Structures are given as structure tokens and as C-alpha cells.
Amino acid sequence: MDEISNPVLLIIDIDSFKSINDLYGEHIGNLVLEAVSKKLKNFVKNMDCKLYRISADQFALMKEAELDTRKCEETLKLILKEINSEPLNILDYDIIIRVNVTIGVSHEKINTLETADMALRKAKNSRLQYFIYCEECSLDAEYKNDVRWTKIIENAINYNNVTVYYQPIVDANNNILKYEALIRILEGDNVHSPIHFLDIAKKVKFYPQLTKIVIQKAFREAQKKQISININLSIEDVVNEEIINYIKSQLLEKNISNFITFELLESESITDYKKVISFIDIVKKLGCKIAIDDFGSGYSNFAYLLKLKPNYIKIDGSLVKNIHIDENALLITKTINDFAHSLGMKTVAEYVHCEEVYNLLKTMKVDQYQGCHFSEPLEHI
User: Fold this and answer.
1) What is the DSSP string of 115-179?
2) What residues make up the domain containing 53?
3) pTM of this prediction?
4) Spatial separation of the C-alpha atoms in residues 23 and 59, rounded to whole Å
5) Of the residues 80, 102, 137, the one at which a domain ends
């Protein structure tokens, strides 16, 4: 990029672009990029600024000017309106795709690109459409945020403020079959979901302790109430000997294996299938079941199912939630369901949020259902 004395830099990021590529293919993804580029070029043609493409799914708009926050926000809203308001019509393929963007802005004279990227991350983490860089979102602030959450996690562990909520999983007649255990951290009147603290917990090595607490509390609930409970495990968990030994000892002590299903996340991070298959063999022999969580969210490798041989496939909510408005999502969901059934596996649809989605899933003969249409996660069962 050109060096200028008073830069205003916008980084414009296409949200969930990888999902567009996964769902429609890279060729359609490239057509989406061309369409977004065309819209941006049209937007800036009468402005004294330059437009760049800086990565696969990001564009940059550079202008020389003193920052006027009000005018900058007006420009940002116009860009968002230009791109977010109307879905893209890929005419040759008869596909309509709704594209949204998030924008990070910097007017720093030093490290302009880096600070614009920080602003973009701040916008995404805070689920904002845009954010203008300020000192508060600097790396120093990120460090302070990590320190704050580390203290919250540590206190939660020490003072028994790590808790478990339970979301029902139902059958086609709306009968509750089991519950998924979901970690929460209590801080005063606040109930924090894992999106806020799980990555930091991994970073500061508290994650195995959190896993143990969830296992302990969920197992106790299953034993006390004689109910079936699903427990999420990451790849880090199933290759951790300490966690594996803890699971084995607790299952044998409480004699509840027939009530427990472990949900493993579909992930490209699996590099050692032998360890994962070893874990699956151990818990299956003890009487537990295995589910693959969020199937369809990433690369959706069907060979993954053949290797791991789970009892259940949980079809990812990013597909399920759109099946009533997106033919491709509907087709992929049906394909996953049919393929799983052909292998003798049961299916669970996640993120069922309305009656229309629920009815479509029932016509596919999905086995089980989960989502806010039935119940939010419950503090008590």
C-alpha cells in the first residue's frame, strides 16, 4: 500500500467466507468475491481513495484525510448497506447468497494495517458491524482482557463457580430423550458462556480442570437422576491421558456408562486418528456412546465417519437453521442424514429454531432434535 501522512484505512472482511466455499464450492466463492469487488469499486469510484484486495476474503480501502468520526461512520454504514442489504444473485447458477461484511478502521500513522486488523478482530469478537481503532483495543488491552478472564476462570474453579446447564434433546414427538451438558462460569449475577473464556482457558492451561469439573458434575447428575447426558470433548481431551484415566475411573465408580454419550467435534485438527479411535474403543467397551458434533460445519469429510464409527451424527446448526430458506443447506442436511442412516448411525439436528425447520427435518426422518424451539439450556433439570 502507498505511504501517506494521514491515513484512514478500512479492512472489509467477508463474514464466514469459508462456509460459502464449503457449501457452494470454490468456483462460486470466486464469483462472490468478484461481485463484492464490483460493488466496492462502484462505491469508491467517485471518492478520493484506493481499493485493494489484501487476502482471500478481505479488501482494504485507503484514504488520506484527518479522521472525522461522524463522517467515517456515515461512510461505513453506506458500505454496509451497499453489501449487506441485498443478496447476491449468481445468475449463471441460479443461486442467491446473502453476504455480510465486518469492517475494521484505523487512522494510526504507525502500524496502520496492524491496528486496522485489531479493530476488525474487536468488531468480530464483539459482534459489531464495524469498529474504529482506539487505544483500548490495542494488544495491551487484549493482554489485560486475558489477565481479567484468567482471574475469573481461576476464581470460578476455586470457589465452585463452574457450573453446567443442560439443553434437552427430543424425538419427533417432542419427548425428551437426553440432555447436552454445557459449561458456564458464574461471576456475581453474570452467567458466562464458553465463547468468552474457553480459548483463554486453553491458553493459560486451566482447560483440563474445566473438563474434569464438567465431567464430574454431569456424571453426578446422570447417576442421581438416572438420565442420559451428552458431554462435549475436544481433541485435546481425548488425547490427554489424565482426562482419559479420569473418565474411566469415574465411569467405573458411578456405574453410569449406559447414560453417557461423548460428543467429539468434527475437526481438521485431528492429526492422530489412532489416539482418537483408541479413546472411542475404550469408552464404547465401558458402555458409552459416541456422537460426532457439528458435522457439516467444516470440511465435512465423510471418511471421518467411516474411521470413527460413531453412534450419532449431530448435523451442524449452520446448515440446519437455514434449510427452510436455502436449497443447498436443505440438500446437504438430507445427504448427511441419509448417509448416516445408511451406516446405521442415528442423527441429531442442532439449532432447530422454528416449527418450519422442525417439520422439514421430520420429513427427512432425522432421529433427534435440539434447539431453542424446544428449550434454551436449563440451569436445573
Assistant:
1) HHHHHHHHHHHTT-SEEE--GGGSHHHHHHHHHHHHHHHHHHHHTT-EEEEEEEEE-TT--EEEE
2) 7-137
3) 0.68
4) 22
5) 137
For every residue of 252-263, DSSP letters joined together read HHHT-GGGEEEE
Mean pLDDT score of the chain, rounded to an integer? 89
pLDDT tens-digit map of 165-224: 999 999 999 999 999 999 999 999 999 999 999 989 998 899 999 999 999 999 999 999
Domain assignment of residue 374, yes or no: no
Do residues 198 and 288 share a domain?
A: yes
- Concatenating the DSSP letter of every residue in 76-125 gives HHHHHHHHHSS-EEEGGGTEEE---EEEEEE--SSSHHHHHHHHHHHHHH
301 pLDDT above the threshold of 70: no
Quote the distance between the C-alpha of residue 325 and its chain's center.
Answer: 21
Question: Could you tell me if 282 and 259 lie in one domain?
Answer: yes
Residue length of the chain: 381
Nearest CA-CA partner of 7 in 107, 118, 155, 123? 107
Residue 336, pLDDT score: 93
CA distance 233 to 229: 13
- pLDDT per position as a tens digit, 8-61: 999 999 988 887 877 778 888 889 999 999 999 988 887 888 899 998 899 999
Tell me the residue type at 168: P
Same domain, 66 and 175: no
Q: Which domain CATH number covers 365?
A: 3.20.20.450
377 falls within a domain: no
Let me know: does 323 contact 360? Beta carbons within 8 Å: yes
Domain boundary among 137, 162, 186: 137
The pLDDT tens digits for 341-362 are 999 999 999 999 999 999 999 9
